[in-house]
Amino acid sequence: MSNSKEESRINKIHTWRSEGSCSARLLQRKMSMSYLFSVFVEELPGYVLFAGIFMPVTLLLLLLIAYFRIKILEGRQNFSFNEVL
Q1: pLDDT confidence of 78, banded at 50, 70, 90?
Q2: What sign does the dihedral 80-82-83-85 (CA atoms) show?
Q3: Sign of CA dihedral 39, 42, 44, 50
Q4: Which UniProt keyword terms apply here (predicted)?
Q5: Share of the chain above pLDDT 90, in %
Q6: Which residues contact 41 (CB under 8 A, 6 or more apart)?
């Protein structure tokens, strides 16, 4: 009787360990960036993706490009003005 209990306990531990390693791999897969991104895009309507993420980021990048272009042109003008003096 005690031998049967011992085997049952060992089988439970062995099963738990194998399930644990499987769930660890599954958790690692679920936490990968591509998986998170795919789930995120699946659950998000297209207009929210466009209006809430793509458009603001694009506008911010265009604003940064314009800002730094203006600063570079100002720097060139100051440099050429100092060169004449």
Answers
A1: confident
A2: positive
A3: positive
A4: Membrane, Transmembrane, Transmembrane helix
A5: 24
A6: 49
How far is the C-alpha of 61 from the C-alpha of 50, rounded, in Å?
15
Cα(63)–Cα(33) distance, rounded to whole angstroms?
29
What is the value of pTM for the model shown? 0.46
Give the tens place of pLDDT for each residue, 36-52.
778 877 888 888 878 88
Torsion of CA 8, 9, 11, 16, to 10 degrees: 140
Q: Are 55 and 47 in contact (CB under 8 A)?
A: no
Annotated domain spans of the chain = 1-43, 45-85
DSSP annotation of 31: T
**Residue 20, CB half-sphere, CA atoms under 13 Å: how many?**
6
